[in-house]
Design brief:
The complex is a heterodimer of chains A (392) and B (337).
Chain A: H1 16-48, H2 79-112, H3 117-131, H4 135-149, E1 157-159, E2 163-166, E3 169-172, E4 174-177, H5 181-209, H6 215-233, E5 238-241, E6 244-246, E7 249-251, E8 254-256, H7 258-285, H8 288-296, H9 301-331, H10 343-355, H11 358-387
Antiparallel strand pairs in A: 1-2, 2-3, 3-8, 4-5, 6-7
Helix pairs in contact in A: 2-3, 2-7, 2-10, 3-7, 4-7, 5-6, 7-9, 8-9, 9-11, 10-11
Chain B: H1 2-16, H2 24-31, E1 34-38, E2 47-48, E3 54-55, H3 57-70, E4 76-80, H4 86-91, E5 97-98, H5 106-111, E6 114-116, E7 121-123, E8 125-130, E9 144-149, H6 153-164, E10 169-174, H7 177-186, E11 191-195, H8 196-203, E12 212-214, E13 222-224, E14 227-229, H9 233-252, H10 259-262, H11 268-273, H12 290-297, H13 301-308
Parallel strand pairs in B: 1-4, 1-5, 9-10, 9-11
Antiparallel strand pairs in B: 2-3, 6-14, 7-13, 8-11, 8-12
The chains are: A alpha+beta (392), B alpha/beta (337).
Chain lengths: 392, 337
């Protein structure tokens, strides 16, 4: 091809690069104009219909009660505070749900592949039952079935005078930390640090000499012994506040409301059944030759699984786990069906209805779910990148 | 998630239902059906039977409008809504009338873009407790767990009442009234609170209605009535006067049974109501016999009350303050002239 000389230079709008840029710019303008139009139109219409707009309602007094609040809350607090209370309740149930579902899902997934016929069939039945029933039904089942089975507060099931279980929830003693508790926390930190150092040292030693060191047992012994020692040495700085039956219900102590328990169980059990299948697919994706090679090297089945198969399976498992975690967080909004005070129930429910400001409330709620989901997604992508095959 | 997406869709409609706004009357006539937002099931007010036919006081308010506008009380499409969904459904134009035991309050009337037409039932908030607790008064409820429906004035009144009486409570908030009943029945809460008329309705939904008692205290004013969108005064008038026509009919002794006979009456009040003289339906763009159709097909206020919540129903609620103004109550309608 002959080289172009300067006199034949194409016009700037015929340059492919410029042209692409121009069209993208035009598209961006059109899209943003569209949204500006929608926003203007909405505000105009709301105004014309006499519907109040703006975020001033967040500073108004809420005037309704919320059964579970992780931060202090009374009827005198603002609608803004109900947002935070609901948000924390959502995060609580989602966080606990993710942890439980992951642990349980892994166990069931591995059990599904067990060579023990009974174990593997039990896992299969579990998976097929729970992943094929609608989640909402499962939530209702756990809530109403469990509620019906539990006794009234006066006939609570109890262990001594400290643990009570009845239809109103699970009541536990509340620890009250007194002066000197810092020593116990300090001891715990010291132990954790020590464990990390021991683990590194043990690893290096194994590489050098091939001798193994019982890291797990040493760690357990350290964790149990040192903080306990500190606890007694500093004069037992934890006092317990016990739940007491007063009038209708128990007072004092910590309460786990049945709505939280039911929702948590339903979410974990359901998501675990899906995670189990992901784990199974991950493990099956590792070639059988790997297992045989591990056995040939003299590794026992437990260690083969832990050191050879799972690390390779993780590469298949992690990306799928991300979407299960996102689902779990979003599914937690079904809480509203059984009266667990999550964000959708409290803020997009009661607050929306008392103030009537649907657009603001729903926009805030959507922003929250988007933020939570993107955060989880970001974290999981980072973790995925870390566990990917290192190509050297 | 269903609720959330419903609201999102409704919000979207709110946005898209932009400047092109025909009057609600024209829309209803074109559609040939009145869209009426009701509860998800509350005996006496709006409740579907096994065949899906809706009955109740709130239902009859909508049927009256259909009779006046479309000459057929059955041309109503009932759309069940939870307390949380109701205002958005009306604002977005999904329904023409919200007749869903909705309390008239300042906030709702002035900041939601809605207008309350008139009160068709004067109610107040009460408490229902299990009989075996042996409680006689709401003042003994300190520390109780209480089942409530989300998004109601009840939630706010409850907080006020307990604060005023220096008592504590635990609010268990459900989405629909059915769920509050289930929670109450399962023993999740000691108390079920709602408007007192609803408590009677919900009580007969219990497996053993005799095990529960409704406490005598009424802790709030709950005037219930149909609601329409703000900004369409013509439609507002039609809904309002449909109700007034029923109340006036009771006052004049005109019922669905004797309405044809009453056409022969010489009483000018009766003749004006039945569209035989006077302004008739002109101001509302309705036919002359609009009120006749309501009375003929739906009945007067007294009939509607007795049939749905009064002596002729399982609820057996007494007229009380809902009696006419000249019979010891406060139901009063402006004259038709």
């Amino acid at each position: 091809m002959p080289t172009e000389d300067s006199s034949q230079k194409t016009a700037w709008w015929n340059n492919t690069h410029n042209r692409a840029l121009l069209f993208q710019l035009l598209l961006a303008c059109a899209v943003s104009l569209f949204f500006v139009f929608i926003a203007n139109n909405t505000v105009h219409n709301l105004d014309q219909r006499g519907i109040t707009t703006g975020f001033a309602f967040l500073k108004q007094k809420a005037g309704f009660g919320i059964i579970q609040h992780l931060i202090p809350y009374t009827e005198n607090n603002t609608y803004g505070r109900t947002f935070v209370v609901g948000l924390l309740n959502t995060i609580l149930v989602s966080g606990l749900g993710i942890i439980c579902a992951t642990i349980f899902g892994f166990i069931v997934g591995v059990a599904r592949l067990s060579s023990n016929w009974l174990v593997s069939k039990l896992a299969a039945v579990y998976i097929e039952t729970f992943r094929n029933l609608p989640l909402l039904l499962q939530i209702f089942f756990w809530y109403f079935a469990v509620l019906q089975a539990l006794p009234s507060p006066r006939q609570s099931l109890h262990i001594g005078d400290s643990f009570f279980l009845n239809i109103r929830g699970l009541y536990l003693p509340r620890p009250i930390f007194e002066h000197g508790f810092g020593w116990v926390v300090g001891a715990l930190f010291f132990v954790l640090l020590a464990i990390i150092i021991i683990k590194r040292w043990a690893g290096k030693r194994q590489e050098k000499t091939g001798e193994q060191f019982p890291v797990l047992w040493t760690s357990l012994a350290l964790i149990l012994s040192l903080p306990t020692l500190a606890y007694f040495a500093s004069g037992t700085p934890i006092d317990w506040e016990y739940p007491v039956l007063k009038g209708f219900n128990f007072k004092n102590g910590i309460t786990v409301i049945p709505e939280l328990a039911a929702l948590l169980v339903a979410l974990s059990v359901y998501t675990a059944s899906l995670i189990a299948e992901i784990v199974r697919s991950g493990i099956l994706s590792v070639r059988h030759g790997q297992t045989e090679a591990a056995y040939a090297l003299g590794l026992r089945p437990g260690k083969t699984l832990r050191l050879v198969i799972i690390p390779q399976a993780m590469r298949v498992i992690i990306p799928q786990m991300t979407s299960q975690y996102l689902n779990l967080v979003k599914n937690s909004s079904l809480a509203t069906a059984i009266g667990y005070p999550d964000l959708v129930s409290v803020f997009a429910g009661t607050t929306l209805n008392q103030t009537g400001q649907a657009i603001e409330v729903i926009a805030m709620t959507m922003a929250v779910y988007l933020t939570i989901s993107l955060t989880i997604s970001y974290f999981m992508n980072w973790y995925n990148a870390r566990s990917l095959l290192k190509e050297r | 998630m269903k609720k959330l997406s419903f609201i999102m869709v409704a919000v979207f409609f709110l946005i898209s239902a932009s400047l092109a706004a025909a009057s609600t009357l024209e829309e209803v006539q074109k559609r040939d059906v009145v869209q009426c937002g009701v509860s998800t099931g509350l005996p006496g007010f709006s409740n579907p039977d096994e065949k899906g036919n809706w009955t109740g006081l709130d239902v009859d308010a909508c049927r009256a409008v259909a009779a006046a506008v479309l000459h057929n009380a059955d041309k109503v499409k009932f759309i069940p809504l939870t307390a949380k969904e109701r205002f958005t459904a009306l604002q977005s134009g999904e329904i023409d009338i919200l007749s869903r035991n909705t309390t008239w309050t300042l906030t709702r009337d002035t900041s939601l873009g809605l207008n309350f037409t008139h009160t068709d039932y004067y109610d107040g908030q009460g408490f229902m407790v299990s009989k075996k607790l042996g409680i006689k008064s709401a003042k003994e409820l300190n520390g109780a767990a209480i089942c409530i429906q989300a998004g109601t004035t009840t939630e706010l009144n409850l907080a006020d009442y307990f604060k005023e009486n220096k008592m504590k409570y635990e609010a268990v908030v459900f989405d629909t009234s059915d769920q509050t009943v289930k929670g109450f029945e399962a023993g999740r809460c000691d108390v079920l609170t709602s408007d007192q008329s609803q408590l009677y309705g919900l009580r007969i939904k219990l497996a053993k209605p005799d095990d529960a008692v409704v406490l005598p205290e009424i802790i709030s004013k709950e005037p219930l009535g149909p609601v329409v969108r703000q900004g369409d005064d013509g439609w507002f008038n039609i809904v309002k006067w449909s109700l007034f026509a029923m109340i006036n009919a009771e006052e004049m002794g005109i019922s669905s049974k004797n309405v044809d006979e009453m056409k022969k009456s010489t009483n000018p009040n009766v003749r004006r109501l039945l569209g035989l003289e006077g302004i008739k339906g002109k101001g509302m763009n309705l036919s002359d016999d609009w009120a006749y159709q309501i009375i003929k097909q739906v009945g007067n206020y007294g009939e509607v009350f007795e049939r749905n919540v009064g002596a002729g129903s399982p609820l057996k609620i007494k007229r009380g303050i809902n009696a006419l103004w000249n019979k010891g109550g406060i139901q009063y309608a402006p004259p038709i002239r």
